Each structure stands twice: as structure tokens, then as C-alpha cells.
Predict the 3D structure of the following.
Amino acid sequence: MTATAVQIRRILLVDDDAFLRRTIRRMLREFGSPEVREAADGSEAIRELECGFSPGLIVCDIQMTPMDCMTFVSYLRGNPTLGCEKSPVLLLTATADSENVRLAKSLGYCGYLLKPVSPKVLTERVNAIMSVSA
């Protein structure tokens, strides 16, 4: 991999597709992020956060069941006890329709990635998010 992403120590990756999670986790680890935890939906992600995991970035698929990304992030933003109400969130989506983009912005997403995810675009998005967050 030729691109280098800003190193983020802890990342929470939320997607119901196990293959995609493994693929993105591998990319993130190659970028230098040593701790990438996975969750198959928003409710699993909340359990990770309730157990004290504090990610520097959350990468989340928009369409999951039983708890989708919008519900998860709304819960995250409304519960400061989790300590992640301002954590940057990168949205994963198969389509970037205007309704999803508008809703994502209203919930404070920092950007989105179209599937399938390439290492180059993932690197660019992570670097952009972390340079704004710094």
C-alpha cells in the first residue's frame, strides 16, 4: 500500500458485512492503527463503548439491522456518558443519495466512503477527517 494515513490508535468499525469489516480492518491496521474493534450493528457498537472502548474514529455502515447507523449515531451524540459524542464518524454506503448525505451531515458525520472501499480513498478520507479534527 503506497498511501499513508494519519495513525489513529483506536477505531471502531461497524458493518453487518463480516468480509467488508475484515477487509477494512486490514487496511486500517496497515495504515498503523493498532486497535480496530468491530461490531456488526449499532447495538453491538454501543456495547463496545459501554465497556469503555474510546475510539478516535468510528467507521459505520449506513444500513444495518437491528440498529442502523443513523440510530446508533443519534444515540451516541445524545449520550455524553459514553464519551464519544464528538468522535468523528466516517459513513460507509453503497449509494450517496442526497437524502442520506443531508441526514449524515445533520448528525455530524465527517465524511462518507462509497463501497467497495479502496485503500487510496480510505486513506484520503481518514487524513481529511483527522486534519480537521486536530
Notes: The beta strands are 10-14, 35-39, 57-61, 89-93, 111-114. The domain at 10-133 is CATH 3.40.50.2300 (Rossmann fold).
